[in-house]
Amino acid sequence: MDSTTFNKFQDSVSKVLVRHKSILDVVTKYQESCAKVNRAVVKSATSCGCIKISAERQNIPDDASYEELSGYMSSHIDGAPCDVCRDKIEKEMGNHLFYLAALCNTLDLQLDDILKSQLKNIDTLGKYSLY
Question: Record's superkingdom (predicted)?
């Protein structure tokens, strides 16, 4: 996706967001949308069963190098979202992106600039940009 797409998306959000313009509304809707993404993922496991979450401690040898780490790490997910669950998760992620763009608009920030800055940090710092 190029920066034009991000800018167009953010501009479109600013044009259609009428009811929830207050920073308080935007922040709470953003938080709510995050919870809905989480719920859609969890429901894929608990209601549909298309994915299975098998969480356990990550077993990383003490002598593992940074380059080897990804080989030892697990997502703890078995399976993949079915078409119905994938659609629901994508819909909720789209809503979440909508409210992220709304938050950027409210604070006069450019989503594209934030993404470019974050990418630059990752490219510059590499493994030291770990959170």
Answer: Bacteria
